[in-house]
Amino acid sequence: MAMGGVVKLLGTWTSPYAMRPSIALNLKSVQYEFLQDPYGSNRSLLHEYNPVYKKIPVLIHNQRPICESMVIIQYIEDVWPTGPSLFPIDPYDRAIARFWTAYIDDKLFPSLTGVGRGEPGAIEQAVTVFRHLEENFEKCSKGKSFFNGDTIGLLDIALGCFLPWTRATESILGMKLFDPAKMPHLEGWAERFCADDAVKKVMPSTEKMVEYGKMLHAKYNPAPN
């Protein structure tokens, strides 16, 4: 049964992991307050509600914290079961979605940050991740619009939250990490995902992410004296 109460989300606009529960809450039409800047003005909240890891995101529901983005999404699905399901109904399909979600977390974010830092092999690893997802899109989606089928779900959210970082990285470096000509399924999926109202509310523009990305790139790749 769905629960009411006060819902808050502790995160930053730059965090792909904080974007995940934001999208999930929007899909479920749950009203929430976004608490920005947990490493500045809200640092005490971060330490209070996530004393173990001291990292975002943290969902605070009726003063009770839930940590880790995938744990939060499962909680959202359990507490607010009405609206579109965030998980495939079939147990096998659900297991596959969780497999690819874990793969994205294990491989994609490290590779994207590695590209920004100029680490050897990072570009190839990022392209490999996208290629695997391109190859498996039809199997997961069963020929429909999203990995989850007709509506956005777990795997869509897991991958889609990295689109701002991906587009910014491509813009900064002048290259394509997933080429529309070679990965048409992912390109079409990305357009549909970004066009959804639940996503548009929280996804930063490429321009804004480029500005942030250049700042990080300069930080990790200082100009020689």
TrEMBL record:
Keywords, comma-separated and alphabetical: Cytoplasm, Transferase
PROSITE patterns: GST_CTER, GST_NTER
Coiled-coil region list: none
GO aspect biological process, one term: toxin catabolic process
Ranges where the GST N-terminal domain occurs: 5-84
InterPro entries: Glutathione-S-Trfase_C-like, Glutathione-S-Trfase_C_sf, Glutathione_S-Trfase, Glutathione_S-Trfase_N, GST_C_Tau, Omega/Tau-like, Thioredoxin-like_sf
Gene3D superfamilies linked to this entry: 1.20.1050.10, Glutaredoxin
Signal sequence, start to end: none
Catalytic activity, reaction form: RX + glutathione = an S-substituted glutathione + a halide anion + H(+)
Location in or out of the cell: Cytoplasm, Cytosol
EC number in record: 2.5.1.18
Keyword Cytoplasm assigned: yes
Similarity annotation: Belongs to the GST superfamily. Tau family.
Biological role stated in the UniProt entry: Is involved in the conjugation of reduced glutathione to a wide number of exogenous and endogenous hydrophobic electrophiles.
Record's protein name: Glutathione S-transferase
Organism this protein belongs to: Cinnamomum micranthum f. kanehirae
